[in-house]
Design goal:
This protein starts with a helix and ends in a 7-residue tail after the last helix. The radius of gyration is 22 Å and the shape is globular. Helix 3 packs across helix 4, helix 3 packs across helix 12 and helix 5 runs antiparallel to helix 6. The N terminus is likely disordered. By secondary structure, the protein is an all-alpha fold. It is built from twelve helices and no strands.
Length: 330
């Protein structure tokens, strides 16, 4: 009787594995189709406005704004690394700012691998090699991405609400601010209750010995940090638009919202390395009704190049930090 039960359990496991194996290539194919469509759309728009795209005038203003955009991108990544270390500290993972910055910066370079998830896996692997609590690290990465999606979603909804009506309508700005505040509160309450009394499956998956009591203030602050990160990225793109157009772009407050929409699209559609093609296409679609499309396409291309340079710089910094002796966590 026992052997029959064992064989049944093995049969169920093997059927589940076959089911996962069956759907995996289908998901990859759909992700590849979405990526190809976005690349095609961006390529068609770039070809249609090739005259405006190719006529880049390398003025001192453009050089200065590109330098400022690069500093913004680096600052955004450093803020994300610091906030991750802060979250690890809340979860009582013994690490220092130097160690967490090294792990975060080196792992981020892996996002340019196909699949767009290698940066998260790389962080867990590097953290395990450093002797950190792997389950807590996995939980921190999961919460980080959920909060980033939450902050980006709130910012995107607010931007869409503003863009559908007159920009000078103060009531829309008030409603958008209310949506952002409500989003913060809902996310904070849900996560605090979940971590204060984790369900059994979460305890088993992450081997949690005890609840993780986190205050509403900490969770709201953490969501706010992700919002500031999106604003940093938006400011980076604003500087590029300014340098290309020669003046401050119209509807400037919609740029961070467009960045949030593009980031979410690149995140939820797997397959494209670092959202390549997807984010550029979504940015063009979102901002072109408000800003000259040739300027938007050029800024999107330059933004991708600057992001590559910033990630390469941070990867070098992370590798350097990992090779030098650091402080001991308290």
């Amino acid at each position: 009787m026992l052997s029959v039960q064992k064989s049944d359990s093995h049969g169920g496991a093997s059927s589940n594995q076959r089911g996962v194996a069956y759907w995996k290539p289908i998901r990859r194919f759909l992700a590849l189709c979405a990526t190809v469509l976005c690349l095609a759309y961006f390529g068609v728009e770039a070809a249609r406005y090739s005259d405006a795209v190719m006529k880049l005038r390398w003025t001192w203003l453009l050089v200065a704004t590109m330098s400022g955009a690069l500093l913004m991108q680096i600052g955004c990544a450093l803020l994300d690394a610091w906030s991750w270390r802060w979250l690890l500290k809340l979860f009582e993972v013994p690490t220092t700012l130097r160690q967490s910055l090294a792990v975060f910066s080196m792992a981020q370079a892996a996002k340019y691998l196909p699949g767009n998830i290698a940066q998260h896996v790389g962080r867990v692997v590097l953290a395990r090699q450093a002797g950190w609590h792997s389950e807590r690290v996995i939980l921190s990465v999961l919460i980080e991405n959920l909060f980033a999606l939450g902050a980006g979603g709130v910012l995107s909804v607010s931007g869409l609400m503003i863009s559908t009506g007159p920009i000078d309508d103060s009531r829309r700005l008030i409603v958008a601010a209310a949506v952002m505040t409500l989003g913060w509160l809902v996310m904070a309450i849900l996560f605090r209750r979940t971590l204060a009394d984790p369900p059994m499956f979460l305890r088993k998956c992450l081997t949690l010995d005890a609840p993780l009591p986190i205050s509403h203030r900490d969770l709201v602050l953490y969501l706010g940090i992700h919002l500031v990160s999106f604003i940093f990225m938006g400011c980076s793109l604003i500087l590029l638009l300014w340098g290309l157009a020669g003046n401050c772009p119209p509807a400037i407050w919609l740029v961070p919202c467009g960045v949030a929409v593009a980031w979410i699209a690149g995140f939820v559609i797997p397959g494209a390395p670092a959202g390549l093609g997807i984010r550029e296409a979504v940015l063009t679609l979102f901002l072109s009704p408000h800003i000259e499309i040739g300027v938007v396409i050029s800024a999107a291309l330059l933004w991708r190049v600057i992001s590559l340079v910033a990630d390469a710089f941070l990867a070098g910094v992370g590798f350097s930090l990992s090779r030098t002796p650091g402080d001991t966590p308290a």
